[in-house]
Specification:
AhpD-like, Carboxymuconolactone decarboxylase family protein, CMD-like, 162 residues, mainly alpha
Length: 162
């Protein structure tokens, strides 16, 4: 499918987009005010307090649930940089894969939020045992943000880079 919103041409890119030449940025830059606010918010989530492995597991599971090939492609690369193996990355698509208790909790958070828009009391209790309050909030916001972004990417038909 062709993009519904064409990415800005390179001669119109800001410094951030020049340094990060991805279609997601060049497309969302068509709305400069929203783009700048989104970059700050998304950047705060990517540079947050969660371990990089947990962050990328949550994003990949969300990309899988939301059928977002663009998110999957970008974050499979980032997950590898965060230390996940190729086999682990592919296993995110399989709920019955053997995961550590810590990894399973992160995946369960993404599952609960996708299927119910809420966490079960058992998932919340396990999250309370593992993370402080700020990290609990951050994980929920991370999954919610990437669910929203998947919808935007799909609707605007943002193309995966070659």
């Amino acid at each position: 499918m062709n993009p519904r919103v064409q990415p800005l041409p390179p001669e119109e890119w800001d410094d951030f987009t020049k340094a990060n030449p991805y279609n997601v940025f060049a497309t969302l830059a068509r709305h400069p005010g929203l783009y700048r606010a989104w970059l700050r918010f998304g950047g705060a989530l990517l540079d947050g307090t969660l371990p990089a492995r947990d962050r990328e597991l949550a994003i990949l599971r969300t990309a899988y649930h939301c059928d977002s090939p663009y998110e999957w492609a970008q974050h499979a690369r980032l997950a590898h940089e965060a230390g996940l193996t190729g086999q682990e990355i592919e296993s995110v698509r399989h709920p019955d894969a053997l995961w550590s208790v810590e990894d399973q909790l992160v995946l369960q958070v993404a599952d609960d939020l996708h299927y119910a828009g809420d966490l079960t009391d058992a998932t919340w209790a396990a999250l309370c045992d593992r993370y402080d309050e700020a990290r609990r909030i951050e994980l929920v916001m991370l999954v919610a943000h990437y669910g929203m972004l998947a919808m935007v990417l799909r609707t605007l038909r943002v193309q995966i880079e070659e």
